């Protein structure tokens, strides 16, 4: 399912509705929640630079914790942000081989985004150009833009917060990261065509 | 144009292209959603997970009106408390759908056939047999409750198969 940027409800809001319905006893709605959040969680996980299998494990653990702790989650509407936080913590726990849960403060900053050479080779010319511009941004901006690209405008602020960005770093205003990308692309005559 | 301006169509277009780039270069793995749902269901039901024992494509003779043999998929799942065998054949009632004939090693068990958008429950007869007549093709898994009246008995869940 590809998110529609103009949708009145973002993917995070829809996921919140599905989770609230699940909590109210509608068991089947959990499947809808998984479909909604999987692309965002995948890219939040991969943005940490971990292997595919580590990312799959971390996402699975986050969802199992959600089911396990469902009754204690204080804000069902904020379920997407909750999952992103848990996925990031779980990735870094796995990467370090820790046997205990790690705290949010122990989660390091995501590295600069990488694509393996094989993936780069399948990009179109325009995508390669976009990749060059993305690579010129700070790692924090790269992570933020990668994750929100898989969500909808109403979700940006909550996702930024769950990634540890300060309030106001994006949504409803453009924020520095999205502005830098816009300026960078706008100054490239090769992009304007 | 500054970072204090509202996000506009140009920004959304830039993000859309970024989404396409990552979706192309590092896509969500095929089947990840199904694997996640399965893991969640197992945990949520406190279920026992059956193993997929064998899967065979059998060619059997269809009804006399069909000259060609009908291919039937036959699959067996095994768990400590129960075994389930299912055969999949074309539905008689709906073109392009399937009929599932099943056999559970326990009579009067409840078998729930769970697909992406629906779940159908059937009760096994005195011999452990059940039939589900009309299901679309797609991924499916089964949840078996051998003693539906006792909530303390753990249900058995099968891995997802394609029918």
UniProtKB/TrEMBL annotation, chain A:
GO BP term, example: DNA-templated transcription initiation
UniProt cross-references to SUPFAM superfamilies, sorted A to Z: Sigma2 domain of RNA polymerase sigma factors (SSF88946), Sigma3 and sigma4 domains of RNA polymerase sigma factors (SSF88659)
Record's keyword terms, sorted: DNA-binding, Sigma factor, Transcription, Transcription regulation
Domain RNA polymerase sigma-70 region: residue ranges: 34-100
Highest taxon listed in the record's lineage: Bacteria
GO molecular function: DNA binding; sigma factor activity
Family label: Belongs to the sigma-70 factor family. ECF subfamily.
Name under which the protein is recorded: RNA polymerase subunit sigma-70
Species of provenance: Intrasporangium chromatireducens Q5-1
TrEMBL record, chain B:
Organism of origin: Intrasporangium chromatireducens Q5-1
Protein name from the UniProt record: Carboxypeptidase regulatory-like domain-containing protein
Highest taxon listed in the record's lineage: Bacteria
């Amino acid at each position: 399912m590809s998110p529609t940027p103009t949708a009145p409800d973002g993917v995070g809001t829809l996921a919140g509705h599905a989770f609230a319905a699940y909590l109210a006893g509608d068991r089947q709605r959990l499947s809808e929640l998984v479909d909604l959040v999987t692309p965002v969680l995948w890219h939040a996980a991969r943005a940490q630079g971990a292997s595919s299998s580590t990312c799959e494990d971390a996402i699975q653990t986050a969802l199992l914790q959600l089911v396990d702790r469902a009754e204690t989650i204080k804000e069902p509407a904020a379920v997407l942000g909750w999952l992103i936080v848990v996925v990031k913590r779980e990735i870094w726990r796995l990467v370090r081989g820790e046997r205990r849960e790690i705290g949010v403060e122990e989660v390091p900053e995501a590295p600069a985004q990488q694509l393996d050479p094989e993936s780069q080779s399948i990009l179109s010319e325009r995508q390669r150009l976009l990749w060059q511009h993305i690579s010129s941004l700070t790692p924090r901006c790269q992570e933020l833009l990668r994750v929100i690209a898989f969500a909808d405008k109403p979700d940006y602020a909550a996702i930024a917060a769950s990634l540890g960005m300060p309030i106001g770093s994006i949504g409803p205003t453009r924020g520095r990261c999205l502005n830098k990308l816009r300026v960078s692309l706008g100054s490239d005559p090769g992009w304007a065509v | 144009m500054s970072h204090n301006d509202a996000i506009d169509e140009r920004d959304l277009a830039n993000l859309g292209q970024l989404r396409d780039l990552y979706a192309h270069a590092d896509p969500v793995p095929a089947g990840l959603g199904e694997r996640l749902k399965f893991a969640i269901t197992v945990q949520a039901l406190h279920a026992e997970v059956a193993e997929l024992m064998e899967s065979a494509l059998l060619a059997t003779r269809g009804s006399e009106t069909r000259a060609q043999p009908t291919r039937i998929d036959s699959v067996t799942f095994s768990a400590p408390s129960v075994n389930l065998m299912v055969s999949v054949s074309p539905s008689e009632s709906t073109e392009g759908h399937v009929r599932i004939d099943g056999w559970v090693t326990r009579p009067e068990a409840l078998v729930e056939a769970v697909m992406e958008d629906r779940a159908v429950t059937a009760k096994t007869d005195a011999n452990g047999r059940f039939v589900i007549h009309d299901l679309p093709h797609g991924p499916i898994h089964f949840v078996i409750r051998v003693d539906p009246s006792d909530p303390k008995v753990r249900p058995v869940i099968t891995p997802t198969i394609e029918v």
